[in-house]
């Protein structure tokens, strides 16, 4: 216990990075996911094809490989860099990998949400003279989004836990599980209680997400 | 001819795969005219309506609205569509928007009216179709007849040149049919140009200038309502009328 308390600064620091990584990746994943979804239902076959290839490729690649690619491929081999300091550079590389990967799941969720909208509404919007983009923005996406808030909650929970892969997969990004491993490496903390402590930390992050998204999905459900 | 007609279809053909759904259709609708389209199920009535604002593409022929050919896609098409109002059998109101928002969406987003102006006009239209007190409700909270009247107000809010109705009362409980027909009849009397697919013969007799009888993708007969219902010229129309009248 004493050892754990002595390390509480590192624990808090770790979870702060986890939250930061999750929030920023979630934001980008959401934006990329919306663009992918619009592309996948667009009237332009080329855009549809590109989005489908993207989603099917990344969705079926292990996240470890995606993040390794960001670290070793983009950064080491191709020299892509996002920041001066290593700490922030690997952070943004991890955000890139996590959001590119998670966007696929956001897009799949939204696409299933689009399927719940009666097609007649989309035709009605067209017949009013709305353009494709207006139709997406005003009719399709708002309804699709509201019908998949539950599944998007699951995507966010998965993302939160997936941030732990970022430190393992060559990037060495700061996040909670890395702090835990560092503590073990120093050999100053009891193993089992520390494991439980970190697991509870993730539970404390993810459990409320599930509840909040469940509550939101009921509140915002579109009545047909 | 084309210069005076509001809607003109010339030699329009359309296939769904092997099925020839529209065969050499030639139709004109003049300003202020009310045309009722009638015919057996599967004869192509809905398809005809839907080609007029290009919800369905055509294989050959020309469709013009107010002298302008229908653009294939893009903003030009969107603009032309906004001049052709459409009322569907299944209402198709936007479920996530209130009644008022359903009616003001097009004017604000397509016609670029201010919200205040759009609201004012929408409330007048809702008043006219008798549901102004429901303006803040969502579609799912209304009866079918009320929803269809909202759909008519939504179409009218665009101040379209012509209004298409595809079996607007077929999905309604019998007691709600009249309230919708009353609205349509008053529109017809005020000079709205309308194309109406319907089997409501009372409406056709009261409001239509012309009846088109369709069968197997063709316009088999074109007549005044009185003549059509009392002495149809074609055997197909006689047969069809005897079936629906015996109900
Ligand atoms: N999207 C489509 N794909 C394939 N076939 C279609 C499609 N839409 C309609 N059809 C077919 O085209 C024919 C004409 O259909 P349409 O809906 O225009 O008929 P209708 O006269 O409106 O019939 P109803 O009175 O039943 O509404 C029918 O045989 C129908 O099955
Ligand atoms: Mg039909």
Written account of the structure:
The complex is a heterodimer of chains A (224) and B (247). Chain A has 224 residues and is an all-alpha fold. Helices cover 83% and strands 0% of the residues of chain A. Chain A has 10 helices and no strands. In chain A, α6 packs antiparallel against α7. The termini of chain A are far apart. With 247 residues, chain B is of the alpha/beta class. In chain B, 39% of the residues lie in helices and 25% in strands. Chain B contains 9 helices and 10 strands. In chain B, β1 and β2 form a beta hairpin. In chain B, α3 runs parallel beside α5. The radius of gyration of chain B is 18 Å and the shape is globular. Chain B starts with a strand and ends with a helix. At the A-B interface, α6 and α7 of A face α2, β6 and α3 of B. The structure holds adenosine-5'-triphosphate and magnesium ion (MG).
List keywords for this structure.
heterodimer, A: 224 residues, mainly alpha, MetI-like fold, B: 247 residues, alpha/beta, 6-stranded mixed sheet, 4-stranded antiparallel sheet, 9 helices, 10 strands, 39% helix, binds adenosine-5'-triphosphate, binds magnesium ion
Sheet with most strands of chain B: 6 strands, mixed
Domains of chain A (count):
1
Identify low-pLDDT runs of chain A.
none
The number of helices of chain A is 10
> How does the major sheet of chain A shape up?
none
Tell me the CATH superfamily of chain A. MetI-like
**What average pLDDT do the residues of chain B reach?**
94
Based on helices, strands and strand pairing, what is the structural class of chain B? alpha/beta
